[in-house]
Amino acid sequence: MPNKYEPWIMMKNKRPLYFTLATAGIIVVVLFILWAGNDFQALRSTEPPMQIRYDMQYQTKVGAQQPSTFFADRKTMRDHVPGTVPRNGSLYPYTTFQEAEAELTNPVAGNRDVLARGKNRFNAFCSPCHSVSGQDTTEVVRKGLQKPPNLAGANAKSYSDAHIFHVISAGQNIMPGYADKIKPEDRWAIVNYVRELQKAPLKYPENAPAATAAVTDTASAARATGGN
Ligand code: HEC
Predict the structure, then answer these.
(1) Which end of the chain is more exposed for a tag (fewer CB within 10 A), N or C?
(2) How many angstroms separate the CA atoms of 187 and 118, rounded?
(3) Class of 97-224 per CATH?
C-alpha cells in the first residue's frame, strides 16, 4: 500500500535514479547529434532554421523570367492573345511616329508636378536598358543587349514629345513597346522626365551625327570589337 503522502511522481515511477539519468543522457546525446548533423544551425547560421513543415516557403510554381516546361514555347510570362486588350487597358492605335505626332500633344507639357512620377516609372521600366541617367551602360548591355542610344544625345533631343511617347508606346526596332504595361498618363510623365534628363550635360562624346541607325550601328560596332 503506497504511502499517500509520497509525491505522485514517486508513486508512479519507482525506477532507480541511475535509470532516469541514463535516459536523460541518451536523449541529450541524440539531440546533440541531430543538431550537429544540422551544422549547429541556430548558433551561427543567418539562414532560416531547419524546416519541419514547409508552410508556403517552397511552392511548385515558376517565377517571372524563368523557363517553363508547361508551354511549348517555354515562356512563363505569357504574351497577350492576339486581338485582345488587357482588362482596363487600351489599344495604342498608331503604327508610325508621324501618325502620333499628327494627333497627340503632351497634355502635361512643362508640368513639373509629374516629374516624381515620371522618374519613378522611368527607373522601373526604362533604366534596366537605358540606365537611370539615360546615358550609361547597364548590366543587360554588358550581358549582350544592343546598347540603346543616349537619351540625352542629339537624336533623342530632336524627338518631339509625341515622338518619345510613340517610342514608349509602340517601341522602336528592338525596343519593345510599353503601351500594355504603362498607363498613358504615366507615359507622358516619363516623357517629361526624359526631357529633364536631357538637360544634363552629355557624359560621352557623340561620334556619329544623329540618325538612329548610325547611333545604334556605332553601338553594335563597339560591342563587336569589345568596346563596351
Ligand atoms: C529592353 C531594353 C529597353 C527598355 C526597357 C527601354 N528601351 Fe528605349 N531603347 C532600347 C533600344 C535598344 C533602343 C534603340 C532601338 C533602335 O535601334 O532604334 C531604344 C530607343 C529608345 C529611344 C529612341 C532614342 C533614339 O535616339 O533613337 C527612346 C526615346 C527610348 N528608347 C526611350 C525609352 C523609355 C522612355 C523607356 C521606358 C519606358 C525605354 N526606352 C525602355 C532599349 C530599351
Answers:
(1) N
(2) 8
(3) mainly alpha
CA 212 to chain CA mean position, Å: 28
State percent of the chain over pLDDT 70: 78
The answer on pLDDT for 18 being more than 80 is yes
In which residue are the cell numbers 533604366 written?
127
Q: What is the best residue among 65, 130, 161 to mutate for testing ligand 1's pocket, by most ligand atoms within 8 Å of CB? A: 130
pTM given for the model: 0.69
Q: Which of 167, 169, 198 to mutate to test the pocket of ligand 1 (most atoms within 8 A of CB)?
A: 167
Element (H, E) at 127: helix 127-130
Task: Find all residues with CB under 8 Å of 71, minimum gap 6, and list them.
Answer: 78
Percent of the chain with pLDDT over 90: 56
Average pLDDT for the chain = 83
How many CB atoms lie under 10 A from the CB of residue 202?
13
